[in-house]
Amino acid sequence: MRTILVLAALAAIGYYFYSRPQGGPVEITDPVYAEIRIEMPIASRQIDFVLFGKMADEEDCRMRADLTWGKMVEDCANCRLTVSTCKADLEPRYKRLFDDSPINSAYLTFTRGEPGERDGRMVIWGVTTEEGNALCEQARNEFKKKYQGVVTCVAGSAAL
Prior knowledge:
The chain has one domain. Helix 1 (2-18) runs antiparallel to helix 2. By secondary structure, it is of the alpha+beta class. The chain is built from four helices and six strands, in the order H-E-E-H-E-H-E-E-H-E.
């Protein structure tokens, strides 16, 4: 039960991070990439979530990061933000997530459906492959309740 509550909180965080009711550019041509890392202790383990997003510009990136921080504090008292950055480019190992390339861990993909939304990825670390795939599906179901774009999971593979 606690896992579902945690995922609901993370889905809310993701929603606030990747959508904005005021709208936005029809096309993002020169993105700034957001990176937010969240640690969440559950029982005797720590699960890490990393959110990456393609933002319209530096201001868009900072505004969404601020919204995420406020929402996270409100919805997830045990969560800890460890990194929040905006940069012109991502490291190749993270940029390939936007090609939906499989990695060891499961991750959620968000492909914007309207101008106010942003493309994003949320990687889940600190769980088994099976747990990660299941958590990703639960998060996808929660996120799809509010996000207009396409939301899918890329399954983690222990063989990679």
